[in-house]
Specification:
Strand content: 15-25%
Keywords: Membrane, Transferase, Transmembrane, Transmembrane helix
Protein name: Glycosyltransferase family 2 protein
Helix content: 40-55%
Shape: globular
Largest sheet: 9 strands, mixed
GO molecular function: transferase activity
Number of helices: 11
CATH superfamily of the largest domain: Spore Coat Polysaccharide Biosynthesis Protein SpsA, Chain A
InterPro entries: Glyco_trans_2-like (IPR001173), Nucleotide-diphossugar_trans (IPR029044)
Order of helices and strands: EHEHEHEEHEEHHEEEHHEHHH
Radius of gyration: 19 Å
Length: 299
C-alpha cells in the first residue's frame, strides 16, 4: 500500500462525504491508496451512511477519542508507506497526493517526516498552513501585544502562518496544520504518532516537536492547494468556552512535554496576563472570560 488517507469524523456527515468524494475525484491512478474513516461516536447518521460506503474502511468508536487518538487508530491499522491525514472539514481541489508522494520519495528529502499543501479557505483566501514550533520566547513576545516588539514577535510567531510567498515552491516549516499532513510511516514508528494525552489542539505541534528532536523536518509544497473550511462561518459566538478550554489545555500539555512543567506554567501565566491586559485596554469582557479559562488550566 502506498498511501492510507485517514479522516476523523465527529458529527460532520456532509463535510466528511465531501472530503471523501474529493479524494476519489482527484486520486492518482498509479498509486495504491485506501481511505479510512475513524468515527468518534457520531450521532448524526454518520454510522448508518459510512458503514455502507464500499469505497472506504469505516471504524466506529463508541466514545469520542479526540483528534489524535482517533487518528492513531487509523495509523496503527495501516501498512502503507505514507499516511495522509485530512480533516473532515477539508477537501481536495487537485491531485496533491502525487506531488506529496514524489517529494517524499526524492532521495534529497529522506529527512522529511511530513509535508503539506498551501491551505485556502472556502473563498479562495490563504488560510493557516501551520506555524513555527511554539517557544517561551514567542510567548514573551506575545505579551508585548505584537506592538512594542513587532520584529521580535514576527520572528518567533508560532501560529496563524498563512503562507510564505517569497520562499519558493517548497520550504521548511515547524509544524504543518493537522488539516492536511502527509506523513512518512517509518518515522511515525520511530518517533511515535500522536500523544494520547492530547484531546484537541496542539497534538500535531507536539508530534512535530518530536520530529525535529529526532532530526526530521516538515515542509510546505506551496504550489499545491487544499481547502480547509475551518472558521468559514460568519456566525460565531464571542467565545466558545469548550474550545478555549481544550486549546488552553493543549498548549499547557505541549509546553510541559516539550519544554518542562515550569515553562508550561510560566507560559500559561503569560497568556492569562495578556488576556487580562487586552480586557482592560480593549474594554471587552470576552478577554476576562478567556483569562479565567487559561488560569484554570493551572489547577
Amino acid at each position: 500500500m502506498d498511501i492510507s488517507i485517514i479522516i476523523v469524523n465527529y458529527n460532520t456527515l456532509n463535510l466528511t462525504k465531501k472530503a471523501i468524494d474529493s479524494i476519489f475525484e482527484y486520486s492518482p491512478k498509479n498509486l495504491d491508496i485506501e481511505v479510512v474513516v475513524v468515527d468518534n461516536a457520531s450521532t448524526d447518521g454518520s454510522k448508518d451512511y459510512f458503514e455502507h460506503d464500499s469505497r472506504i474502511i469505516y471504524i466506529y468508536s463508541d466514545e469520542n477519542l479526540g483528534f489524535g487518538r482517533a487518528n492513531n487508530i487509523g495509523i496503527n491499522k495501516s501498512d502503507a508507506k505514507y499516511i495522509f491525514l485530512l480533516n473532515s472539514d477539508a477537501y481536495l481541489i487537485e491531485d496533491v497526493l502525487t506531488p506529496f508522494y514524489n517529494f517524499m520519495e526524492n532521495p534529497e528529502h529522506q529527512n522529511a517526516a511530513c509535508c503539506g499543501a498551501n491551505v485556502i479557505d472556502g473563498n479562495g483566501n490563504n488560510a493557516v498552513i501551520g506555524g513555527n514550533l511554539p517557544s517561551v520566547k514567542e510567548s514573551i513576545a506575545r505579551l508585548g501585544f505584537a506592538g512594542l516588539f513587532i520584529p521580535y514577535y514576527k520572528r518567533y510567531m508560532a501560529s496563524g502562518i498563512k503562507h510564505y510567498p517569497d520562499r519558493g515552491t517548497f520550504y521548511e516549516i515547524g509544524c504543518v496544520t493537522g488539516a492536511n499532513m502527509f506523513l512518512r510511516k517509518s518515522i511515525l514508528v520511530e518517533t511515535g504518532a500522536f500523544d494520547p494525552d492530547f484531546f484537541l489542539y496542539y497534538e500535531e505541534t507536539e508530534m512535530s516537536f518530536r520530529f525535529k528532536k529526532h532530526g526530521y523536518k516538515s515542509y510546505i509544497l506551496a504550489n499545491h492547494k487544499v481547502v480547509h473550511l475551518e472558521g468559514s462561518s460568519s456566525k460565531k459566538p464571542a467565545i466558545n468556552k469548550v474550545v478555549e478550554r481544550y486549546y488552553s489545555q493543549g498548549r499547557y500539555l505541549y509546553f510541559e512535554k516539550s519544554h518542562g512543567k515550569s515553562s508550561a506554567r510560566f507560559v500559561t501565566l503569560l497568556f492569562g496576563v495578556q488576556s487580562i491586559l487586552f480586557g482592560i485596554f480593549k474594554f471587552k469582557k470576552v478577554h476576562f472570560t478567556r483569562a479565567k479559562i487559561i488560569f484554570n488550566t493551572l489547577r
